[in-house]
Every structure is written in C-alpha cells, then in structure tokens.
Amino acid sequence: MIHKQVAIIGGGLAGLTAAIHLSKIGIKVIVIEKNTFPKHKVCGEYISNEVLPYLSWLDLNIQDLNPTKISKLQFSTENGKSINAKLPLGGFGISRYILDEYLYKKAISNGCEILHDNVENVEFNDDEFTITIAENNILKSKLVIGAFGKRSNIDQKLNRSFIKKKSPWLAVKAHYSGNFANDLVGLHNFKGGYCGISKVENDKINICYLADYESFKLYKNVDDYQKNVLTKNPILKQIFESSTLIFDKPITISQISFEQKKAVENHILMIGDTAGLIHPLCGNGMAMAIHSAKIVSELIEKFYGDNIQSRTSLENSYNIQWNFNFKNRLRTGRFLSNVLQKTKLSKFLMQLIIIFPFLLPMIIKKTHGNPIQ
C-alpha cells in the first residue's frame, strides 16, 4: 500500500473533482466508477458561480465547454402565477454528459487511476480499508472517499439509516430543442412536485423534475404524467408544447431521499450527494458537490502533511466543516421537501412567495454560499 493514497468510490461530479484536486497536490488517487463516459445523469445541470474561482485553481476552463450563462430566475405556482428574480451570483448551465467526461479526462491527465468496476464491499480494519471489487479483486487504501451518489448498494452494505426509509420522490430528466432564454432558470410548481428548466451547452434545454411517486404511478408512463399533471401549469404547458424531445426517452431515478445523512460513516469521508442531498428546488446541489470535494481534499492534504495528527481529528474536522458550510442549506432543503409533500401548505407557501416576492431571494441566499477560493 502506498502511504499517500486515496481511493474514491464513485466518479461523478464530486468524486472526479476530489480526484483532480488530490492529484494536483501530489497524492496518488484511484477512482472506482461503475459507468463509462460520457453518460447522461438525472440532474438539474445548473451550477452556481460560487465555484468558479475554485475550478480555475484546479486548471479547469469551463468556458471551453460553451456553458450558458444564467443570471435570472422565474418561479411559478401550479396555476402559472409567476415572479422573476435576479440570481445574486448567477450561474451556468452545463450537461453532466459533457462536464463529467471533461473532468474524467482531466483526472486521467493528472495521473489518476480510473477503474471501471463495481464495489462489492468496503471494510475498515487495523487503520486501513479493504475494498472488494468484482471477481473478488482487492484494493487497500489508507483513506477512502465516498462519492457514490444519491443511493447505492454500498449504502445498504454500510447499513446507513436513510436507506431503510422509503422515499416518496422520483426524478425525471431529458434534453429538448426549442425556444428558451439562455440566461434564465425556471422553477415551476405542479401538483405533487416541481420542474426545473434551463439551457445547457449547444442550445439544448434541460428539463428535470421531481415528482411524488404516489401521484406518478397513477399514469401509465412519463409522457402521460407530463400531459396530465405538469401541463396543468400553463407555463409548463407552453414549454412542453413548443419543445421537441432530443433523448430517445426521458431518464428516471426513484427513491430519492432528502433524509439526513452522515458526512463520515465507517471512517469513509462522504462527499456530494453521498453526504447529503439538497432539494433540487434550492438549485445548488452541483456547487455543493464541488465544494465538498474541495473541503475533503484540503483536509486530506493536512492529514498527509502531518498538520492533522490522527484519523479521528481528520474525521472531526471534516464533520465540523461539512456542518458549517452545508447543514443549514440542507435543513432548508428538507423543509422545502416536506412542504411540497403537503398540498395545502405547499400552495400557501407558493402564494406567499408570489405576494411577497422578496422572500424568493431570501430562500436563494439561504441555500447558496459565497464564492469559494
């Protein structure tokens, strides 16, 4: 085992960002990712500009990917009443299909080892991890970062508390062609959920929505559900009627949980959605994933540089920083998730925002951070 080594389980946005950071500072990195690239993922594909200084430090030139620049927000209730707001920091739209492959290639050029395989088990004994991948191949590592996404068989292996509870949420995503403003992100409420819409690169429209599974299963398929539920919101009706599906069919993911998760479990340092999933209505999940990769990488640098003396201190430091940066944002996200599940309360909140538009920027501020250097 090489002493200054980190194994990262999961090669999505958070995992690859951590790999690039750690390899940049001279730490050997092995990333285990079950999928190959490029690959579409269910994601809102909007990133707050708060991460741009950090991405620049990582030598990532996002402008090369031709992202859209987003500065405005439109918010609407079920009946189509809407308000518009300016996003305090603004952001950009980029598909995971393009972004993840870009990060993957950067990680490889930095010298990271990428294994395309499934992790069967992770055990911690005698101050080191044993990672079992397919066909009983074994990897050893001093440190492990968990970046395996919203839910995984590894969550079950670790017996994480959130995985035991059924979640009512399903997410659907697809790309479309059509007319939609380049600088706008739309957040549109419908009965049982909400829909986010914004442009990504190459003039494509990303439509991604979160739906209550109980209402969704009343319909035969995604198309029927969209026609009978989403388009009851006149704004969504106009968008769907004027847009053409680019994908063969929308992609979905079920059992999305907004339950509280632990940032450290079985000594694994969790980042991104693996550590905590913020409600998509907050529009800040991708930036949080990138920021969490930065936090964990900087602490690992201190650990291997002997500025953090023990694993316990490393884990405690990570918990403290995770809570400082994200705990309140996640709490706000869980509150919004609970509100959306209660029809009357949801309608009341949405109408309140329409009547008092200053509440919307306040919610945005509570779920976004400052520029990270």
Structural class: alpha/beta
Mean pLDDT: 90
Describe the sheet with the most strands.
Answer: 9 strands, mixed
What is the count of β-strands?
Answer: 18
Q: Identify the CATH class.
A: Alpha Beta
**How far apart are the termini?**
33 Å
Strand proportion: 25-35%
- Please identify, by name, the CATH architecture: 3-Layer(bba) Sandwich
- The SSE string, one letter per element, is EHEEHEEHEEEEEHEEEEHHHEEEEHHHH
Q: Number of helical segments? A: 11
Output the CATH topology: FAD/NAD(P)-binding domain
The global form is: globular
How would you name the CATH homologous superfamily? FAD/NAD(P)-binding domain
- The low-pLDDT segments are none
Structure overview:
The protein is of the alpha/beta class and 373 residues long. It has a single domain (5-166, 256-367), classed as 3-Layer(bba) Sandwich (FAD/NAD(P)-binding domain), CATH 3.50.50. The chain is built from eleven helices and 18 strands. The chain has helices at residues 13-24, 52-57, 96-109, 153-157, 213-216, 222-228, 234-241, 285-304, 311-341, 343-355, 359-367, and strands spanning 5-9, 28-32, 46-48, 68-76, 82-93, 113-115, 119-125, 128-133, 137-141, 143-146, 169-178, 184-190, 193-199, 205-212, 243-245, 251-256, 264-265, 268-270. The strands form three sheets. Strands 3, 4, 5, 11, 12, 13, 14, 15 and 16 form a nine-stranded mixed beta sheet that branches. It has a six-stranded mixed beta sheet with strand order 6-2-1-10-18-17. The longest helix has 31 residues, at 311-341. The radius of gyration is 20 Å and the shape is globular. The model has no long low-confidence stretch (mean pLDDT 90).
